[in-house]
Amino acid sequence: MEWEEIAELRRQEIARLHRCCREYDREASLLREKLTAFESQETQPSEDAPKHFSVKGCVERIVDGECWIERPAHDEEAEFWGVYIVGPDGLDSHIADFNDKSDAEFFARCKESVYA
Length: 116
Hints:
Elements: H1 3-40, E1 52-63, E2 66-70, E3 80-86, E4 92-98, H2 101-115
Antiparallel strand pairs: 1-2, 1-3, 3-4
């Protein structure tokens, strides 16, 4: 592999990381806004509000030009971490993604404490 090719691959990886950081910053900003809005309400969550949140490792796959998010294979590491609401029917609903597992777990604990 030529040095120019290696340099181009590094530039692409750096650009991808910058996109991830911008997305993470956007998500954090939206979460702060939602939390502020929630805290400004004087009502309590309803009885049927979700009470359990789960954190799951995720990988991104491109299939036929479309992006799919899946659980990593047994021998594969997660690329990022998703936080899901576990509904009363046992089905998961996605609410947020994080690059770091500890951030995702902290977010899930915060959400659970709000609805406790």
